[in-house]
Design brief:
The protein is mainly alpha-helical. The protein has helices at residues 7-13, 18-25, 29-36, 45-55, 59-62; strands at residues 2-5, 63-66. The protein has a two-stranded antiparallel ribbon.
Length: 69
């Protein structure tokens, strides 16, 4: 299994870009970019909390486990 995220989808639904998310959450652009491109190897609880608050979503709407076939 692999942890994946829906940041790209949530940003599109809310018509936001990386700069918008950075300005609204205070998260670094690098952190957001790595999540957006799914190259992150670690994600802090603080990052998850800030993104869930911004997008008014639950953790399972932001992140999920992808089952390998």
């Amino acid at each position: 299994m692999k942890v994946k995220n829906n940041l790209r989808i949530l940003m599109a639904q809310h018509k936001m870009n990386i700069k918008d998310v950075h300005e609204k959450t205070g998260l670094s652009r690098t952190t957001i970019s790595k999540m957006y491109n799914e190259t992150s190897t670690t994600i802090s609880f603080e990052t998850i909390e800030k993104l869930c608050l911004l997008f008014d979503c639950e953790v399972h709407e932001l992140m999920y486990l992808e089952k390998k076939s």
